[in-house]
Amino acid sequence: MLASIILSYILGSVPSGVIAGKLKGRDIRRLGSGNIGTANAARVLGVPTALAVLAGDALKGFLAVYLGRWLVGTPTAAILAGLAAIVGHNWSIFLGFRGGKGVATSFGACLALSPILALSLVPIWVVVVALTRFSSLGSILAAGAAPLMTGILRLGWPIFWFALAGASLIVIRHRGNINRLLSGTELRLGDRF
Could you give the CA distance from residue 107 to residue 117 in angstroms, rounded to a whole number? Predict the structure, then answer.
């Protein structure tokens, strides 16, 4: 099981946003908000590139779950592998233990573990972002709803613990966004620096 966790962490550490930026001759960490995720990629690299970053980050979480299943074969191993990929994205070994906020990687892991849970969270994100244009708020509220949705959908305790841990990691990484939301200085989608 340890091997699957380590490999999943390394997989999660691959910085899709940084790679996409370098392919366009730009360092996403030095532009916009400095975040390596989809929202900043959209601002500084354009929407098509941001969609590629989103897909790459989600794929890391998705593949990590299957790596855990393949190497160990238990639900616990799959969950821990998914969480390891999220941790790798957030604190990448390739970026000096810095990284993104884990939303897309969490979604990918969730999609592999429980497609119904992952898809139930999408409308929450979409509605919040449509009403407020705050991607961060949509991510925080969708993540916060995940543990509750496991109960509504009767998905069982293992998925609940995954949802709770994943949501906690997302909220921790969004502390700065929460402060900016409270102070009225958070950027909305479409805003430029």
Answer: 10
